[in-house]
Each structure stands twice: as C-alpha cells, then as structure tokens.
Specification:
single chain; 765 residues; alpha/beta; eight-stranded parallel sheet; five-stranded parallel sheet; UROD/MetE-like_sf; Met_Synth_C/arc; methyltransferase; zinc; metal-binding
Length: 765
C-alpha cells in the first residue's frame, strides 16, 4: 500500500519564508535572495517526505502568497489596473495583485473555505485575455526531479478555480463565470502537456468545491471540463482531490464518473458520511486516496482506528488501489513538533505536527502492507489512553457551569435602540464617530521588549514601563488625530488569540507552532486540550491604565469565544460548542471586571464567526445558533450604558446578516472596502439594521494610503443605505501589520473625511 500527502506547510520551521518575503517587500533583499530561500525550503520539504517513505509527494504546493493567486498568474488573468503587458508574470505584478501598490488597490482577499487561511479572489469577465503566463508548476516539478524526487504536481482544478472567482468590477454580477471554461481549459492543456514532457506520471487536480451544495449546472461543468481534458490527460495518472467535508451524493456520482481520472481523494476525518458512498458505489479499478490523517488539527492520529478503517476500505477497492493520505493539505497545521522544547512531555505525546503526520501516513501504509511497526503503534496507543484518562483535561466546576447555560438565550434586558440612547447620553459622541479596530503597528522595538520579557532578560518593572510608554504614544497620536473612541494599541499582545489563551486554563502553547494565514502573515494557534476557565483578570490592568491617559472613551479589547475557538487547535474529544460555551463564560467574567473598572466601551472581536460556518447549508442553523448564543453569553449581565462592540473581517457576511443582527451587539465594525463594498448590498436590498455599524473605509492589508476624497466617497455610499445616527467610520481591521508612516496619514485622511461629511450634513439641515 502506498502513501500520499495532499500538501505541506510552506513557511518553514522557523518562518524562513515570512522573513524573506518581508525583507524583499521592504527593499532590503533582492528577488534572487527570495528565490534562493524558497528553493531551499522546497528542497527540504521534498527530501523530508522522500526520506519518510511517502510515495506520492506533492509539488507546486509551495506559494509566495496563495495557490489560487498562483493559478490566476498561470492563466494570465491579471486585472487591467495592474498594467501587466504580457509575458511571464514577475514579482512586481504578482505582489501588486496580492497587496496593492502606491497607485492601485489589491484584489479582494477572503477565507479559504472554513479555515483561517486566505486566498486572493480572481476577478474575471468576458473580456479577460487568458494566456499561459506562469510556468511555476512545471518548473517546480523539474526542480524536484533534478534532486531525485519524482513528485505529483498539484493544480487548482479548473472548475473550482472559476467557482471561487467573482465578476470583475464593471461586469454584471450575474455573469456566468463557468462560461469561461472554454477559455481556460486550453491553458490547462498546455500545462499538462509540459508536465508530461517533463516526465510526470501523476498529476493532482484539487476540486474542493465538490464538497459544497452545488446546483446541477455546476456539477455538469465538472463533467464537461474533464471530458474536454480527457485526451490531454491520456498517459497520466490523474488524482482529483477533495477535502474539508463530505462529498454530497450527487457530487460523488459526478466526480467518480469523470473522464480521464484515475484516482479520487476524500477527507475521511471531516467527511465521514462519504464512507457510505465509497462502500456502496466506488468505481472498480480506480485508486482511492483515503484521507485518514487529520490535516487541520494537531492531535496524534489514533493509528489503531485508522488502520481498521483502511482495512475495511481495502475490501472495497483492493489493496493495490488503496492509498493512505492526509485529509487535506498539512498547510493548516504547525510544521514540526521537534522544535517544541517547552511543551511538557505528557501533552507533547498527544500531538502530531506536519512532520509527524507524514510519518503517521507512512506507518499506516506500511502496516496495511504487512510491515507494521509494533513499537510505534504501541506508543501511539499509550498516548491515546493517557489523553483520555488525564485529570488535567477535566474540570467538573467548568462542566457544571457550562451545562447550566441550557434553557436560556442570554439576551440583554433592554433593546438596542434604548441602549444606544443611554450610551450616547454618557459618551456624547459626534455623528459619524471615528475609531480604529484595536491594534497599532508592532514595531521592532516593541517585539524586542516582549521577547526579552518572556526570556526574563528584563524585569517586570522594565516591561510595564516600556509597554506603558508605547500605550501613551498610541493614545497621544489618536488624540492628535482627533479620533473619537480610542484604543490602547495592544502593545502587550503578539496575537489576539494567543494572548488570551496564555491566561486561560485548559490551553497549551507552542514555541514554533506557526501556521500561515495569508502572505507572510503567520499565527500561532493555542492548543485547547482541556476544560476552559479564567483564573484571574486578563486585560483590566492595561485597559485601566490606558483610560487614565485620556478623557475620551477607551475601548476594552477582547477576543470573542467563537474566534478563540476557531483560531485554536481545538480538542476533538467533545463537541466544539461545549468548548465554546466554556470560553464564553471566561470572557463574560472579563467583561464584567472591565465594566467594574470603569471601561464604558468594550469590543469583543468575533472576526472568525463566519469562518466557522459549515460548508453545507443543512448544518448552518445549528452552528449559528450556538455561535451567536456564545457571543451573547459574554455580555448579558452588563449595564445599558456600557457599549458592546464586535468586529468581523475577511469573509462573505451577506448570507449570515440576520445572525449578525441576532448577536445583539451595540456596534459592529466590519470589513468592507477590500471586498468592493459587497456588504452594503444587503442594506440596499432592504435589510434593516438598527445598531451602530462601521463598514471599513479602507483596506489595512495594503501599504497603500487612501486619500480623504476616496474615504469620503466610501462614507457617502454607506450613507445612501444606512442612517446617519448609526454609522461609524473606521478602517477594515487592526493596524498591527502596517507601519506608522502608513498609519498616520491614512487615519488623518479618515478623520478628515468624517469631519468634512459632518460639516456637509450640518449645512444641509
């Protein structure tokens, strides 16, 4: 039996790619320097999998930004605003699409299915002149082959690419993107021909949209596309890979009947119902790539259970046609457990990062072939038993408090309109109040201070002094800019989830468990291994200190329970909603302590609420019910005069707008500018929103500085569909990834735009 890995983390065990990208963007290193770091990373990844015994090793899963943008480059689908003149796409055009530049904005960025990874959304229309403009897939296959590794080149499948795209600006929203299939398939044929000529014997086409609820015409597009590609694919073994959920019965039937396809890959961790379809109707003579090792979490595989599952599948497809695989790309997990020197031995024994998952996949393949590593399986069984019986996992008081939540929907006693009136009397804010989302730039000096404090190289007194000075700088800047509701800038926090997890029980932390979110942005998700509670206040000290520096309202800044859940590696031994309720109770304690300390505006970020929405519509209602309930639990007991904000970003919110309203926050700030103001369309269509709302007026993920006029134009578009008395003016998201030379003029222009429109509104009365 053979083994396969869908994809692998590309940042490197010590975030080598992140630092190389940022050095290049800052002009401190050359394109050749960046390419050298990247080539070294690819080489080490291929060697690692080769040495571990993986037969089907992926290539072209490395990316400088994301795999969908790579496909856009391959197809030459560059929007005209980037002034690309043809030829092979170079870094300048590629990174302008991803990040924008001084003169034009970036393309929209959104979440990759229900993960915290992001992709750049292709902008397509009838006038796009597709051309083969990036030979990356072929070049990387040849690169690996030159090193003695015969890989499986991976491409985003043509139908999924189109289904993940959007009509370009100026193109009718109803434009049928699938009508472009005939224009992109010739380029896929060119790529496939070059791969065959280079010696490839397998190719992997990722078609993850097959797990969605697709209408019949979309399923028909798969049939059409692969029938068209059949002759080009002749002579190759072709794997069509799916992941993240069950494949619905109709899609399964379409998928397994595709022309020219040799093998089918399924996520059997999150897609357990697909098993019944495999057992009843998997086509004979085809390969089954069985995704039994979880690519989205860090728990060690239950090898005995996975082996039993594989043995049952062996009877369906035959030993020579069964391949042990990961459930999806390992991009979504941390790189290597060997780099974790501070995790205690018990918890460490429960875990497997990407490098360990590669070993697990191969161990399962060998066991099924009769070469079972008894010692490896025995150690795994002992770790599984240890985790189930460990007293550190269970806290009876927490479980009792969580169980007591049943039977109440936890709503504040007064409606939002009355609360806003009470809050305005206390806060006395102008119309179109200005604010920011929370974080301010994380300077090199600030990171040094936190690092040295953690390493005990500076005293607590020195640390508090340095952080206090940073907060004062941020407060003074906001007052100088005349922002209405201030933030303290979060200088004490490296990450919005990690910071809270470090102060909650039931969490463990890694030193190097970094996971890519987008581009060079990496996060280090905490590990929730047990019941969650809050031993002591987490933010009251810094929020109170910041409020003492100003007479203006200072937001208390918290991360909400659903976002902490969705941005952590979550325990898989109880339902996710039970863990979420436990986190909600911990955040509720913090909200109440902030209110007691005199903080009158408290922001509870739920940036990841939409991200966790299940991929299948039938599962939406259950998730939204417990997710929204968890948010309401956090602030149910506070005074009407305390204003609760929440923040959401980088997802499509239009389909859950009623659940957002049901959260019952007083003010929501929400990403809007980078997604072509899609959010405003729901209000144009008649959805009534009575709480405060701040659709973002500029994109903070781009270094570009918007003009006062541009921001004013966005605000006026908002005023066309939203009442003046509920509209807030704010950026799309937090400012931690930007530099002060970008932040100050952008915020200056934002405040100036708000003041200009206030004057216009006053004179129009």
């Amino acid at each position: 039996m053979a083994s396969h890995v869908v994809g692998y983390p590309r940042m490197g065990p010590k975030r080598e790619l992140k630092f190389a990208l940022e050095s290049f963007w800052d002009g401190k290193s050359s394109a050749e320097d960046l390419k050298k770091v990247s080539a070294d990373l690819r080489s080490s990844i291929w060697k690692q999998m080769f040495d571990a015994g993986i037969k089907y090793i992926p290539s072209n899963t490395f990316s400088y930004y994301d795999q969908v943008l790579d496909t856009t480059a391959m197809l030459g689908a560059v929007p005209s605003r980037y002034n690309w003149t043809g030829g092979e796409i170079e870094f300048g055009t590629y990174f302008s699409m991803a990040r924008g530049n001084a003169s034009v904005p970036a393309m929209e960025m959104t979440k990759w299915f229900d993960t915290n990874y992001h992709f750049i959304v292709p902008e397509l229309g009838p006038d796009v002149n597709f051309s083969y403009a990036s030979h990356k897939a072929v070049n990387e296959y040849k690169e690996a082959k030159a090193q003695g590794v015969d890989t499986v080149p991976v491409l985003v499948g043509p139908v999924s690419y189109l289904l993940l795209s959007k009509p370009a600006k100026g193109v009718e929203k109803s434009f049928p993107l699938l009508s472009l299939l005939d224009k992109i398939l010739p380029i896929y044929k060119e790529v496939i021909a070059e791969l065959k000529a280079a010696g490839a014997s397998w190719i992997q086409l990722d078609e993850p949209t097959l797990v969605l609820d697709l209408e019949s015409h979309k399923l028909e597009a798969f049939t059409k596309a692969y029938a068209d590609l059949e002759s080009s694919l002749s002579g190759l073994n072709v794997l069509v890979e799916t992941y993240f959920a069950d494949v619905p019965a109709g899609a399964f039937k379409t998928l397994t009947a595709l022309k020219g396809v040799t093998a089918f890959g399924f996520d059997l961790v999150r897609g357990t119902q697909t098993l019944e379809l495999i057992k009843s109707s998997f086509p004979s003579g085809k390969y089954l790539f069985a995704g039994v090792v979880d690519g989205r979490n860090i728990w060690a595989n239950d090898l005995a259970a996975s082996l039993a599952l594989l043995q049952s599948l062996e009877g369906v497809v035959g030993k020579d046609k069964l391949v042990a695989s990961t459930s999806c790309s390992l991009l979504h997990t941390a790189v290597d457990l060997i780099n974790e020197t501070k995790l205690d031995d018990e918890i460490k024994s429960w875990l497997a990062f990407a490098a360990q998952k590669v070993v697990e996949v191969n161990a399962l393949a060998k066991a099924l072939s009769g070469a079972k590593d008894e010692a490896f399986f025995s150690a795994n069984a002992a770790a599984q038993a240890s985790r189930k019986s460990s007293p550190r996992v269970t806290n009876e008081a927490v479980q009792k408090a969580s169980a007591a939540l049943q039977g109440s929907d936890h709503r504040r006693a007064t409606n939002v309109s009355a609360r806003l009136d009470a809050q305005q009397k206390k806060l006395n804010l102008p119309i179109l109040p200005t604010t920011t989302i929370g974080s301010f730039p994380q300077t090199v000096e600030l990171r040094r201070v936190r690092r040295e404090y953690k390493a005990k190289k500076i005293s607590e007194e020195e640390y508090v002094k340095a952080i206090t000075e940073e907060i004062k700088k941020v407060v003074d800047l906001q007052e100088e800019l005349d922002i209405d509701v201030l933030v303290h800038g979060e200088p004490e926090r490296n990450d919005m989830v990690e910071y809270f997890g470090e102060q909650l029980s039931g969490f463990a932390f890694t030193a190097n468990g970094w996971v890519q979110s987008y581009g060079s942005r990496c996060v280090k998700p905490p590990i929730i291994y047990g019941d969650v509670s809050r031993p002591k206040p987490m933010t009251v000290f810094w929020s109170s200190k910041a409020q003492e520096m100003t007479k203006r309202p200072m937001k208390g800044m918290l991360t909400g329970p659903v976002t902490i859940l969705n941005w952590s590696f979550v325990r898989n031994d109880q339902p996710r909603f039970e863990t979420c309720y436990q986190i909600a109770l911990a955040i509720k304690d913090e909200v109440e302590d902030l209110e007691k300390a005199g903080i009158t505006v408290i922001q509870i970020d739920e940036a990841a609420l939409r991200e966790g929405l299940p991929l299948r519509k039938a599962e939406h209602a259950f998730y939204l019910n417990w997710a929204v309930h968890s948010f309401r639990i956090t602030n149910v007991g506070i005074e009407d005069t305390t204003q609760i904000h929440t923040h959401m970003c980088y997802s499509n919110f239009n389909d859950i707008i009623h659940s957002i309203i049901d959260m019952d926050a007083d003010v929501i700030t929400i990403e809007n500018s980078r997604s072509d103001e899609k959010l405003l369309s729901v209000f144009r269509e008649g959805v009534k929103y009575g709480a405060g709302i701040g659709p973002g007026v500029y994109d903070i993920h781009s270094p570009r500085i918007p003009s006062t006029e541009e921001i004013a134009d966005r605000v006026n578009k908002m005023l066309a569909v939203l009442d003046t008395n509920i509209l807030w003016v704010n950026p799309d998201c937090g400012l931690k990834t930007r530099k002060y030379i970008e932040v100050k003029p952008a915020l200056q222009n934002m405040v100036s735009a708000a003041k200009t429109i206030r004057t216009q509104l006053a004179s129009a009365k």
